[in-house]
Amino acid sequence: PGSTEPAIRIAEGARVVLSARAEGPAADYPWIAMRPANASATRPTPIAAAMAPKTPLTSIRAARDASPVFKITAFQTGGVRSLEIHSAALPVTVGRSRSQTLIVDRRHEGVSGHHLDIVELGTAGATVVVHGDNGVLVEGVNHAQGARFDWRAGQTMVLGDASNEHPACTLTLACRDD
After folding, report:
1. CA–CA separation, 31 vs 26, rounded Å?
2. Interacting residues of 154 by C-beta distance below 8 A, sequence separation 6+
3. What's the CA gap between 168 and 104, in Å, rounded?
4. pLDDT tens-digit series, residues 59-88
5. Which residues contact 75 (CB under 8 A, 6 or more apart)?
6. Is the peptide bond before 91 cis (omega within 30 degrees of 0)?
7. pTM of this prediction?
8. For 124, which DSSP code?
9. Residue of 144, 145, 135, 141 lying closest to 169 (CA atoms)
10. C-alpha span between 173 and 119 (Å, rounded)
């Protein structure tokens, strides 16, 4: 009320990056995706999920008890990031694109925009589907683009081409309580 500032029209599907100073890569800042109200197949952004209506605590506990919860820790040139995952949040997507659940630092040029999906959780780990051109390396075993494999808790995964030209980006999978 009373504002003289003109409204800014934002196109459907656009992303708004929230930053006061815009220092560093845009991937380091939270963002909001503008989606139509009837888009039912889209996953909420971390901001939208945090602002979603709260579920009764008993429902949250039941959901957590029903599925194993793991933690992924990403070691990147920009620092260390961790993400807790559970069955209700699947698929978890990993890559350099800002639309991924776990965004890999842009300095890892050997990692694709959408490098992999975590599609299923079990008692011992997660099922992974590789999309990246350069594949992944887990415990000395290369998994090429299109591969589907089981990633066990305690194992380290190297994403993409981790040669002298490209810095290594590694992920570790652990039980949440470890």
Report:
1. 9
2. 172, 173, 174
3. 11
4. 444 444 445 689 999 999 889 999 999 898
5. 168, 169, 170, 171, 172
6. yes
7. 0.63
8. S
9. 135
10. 14
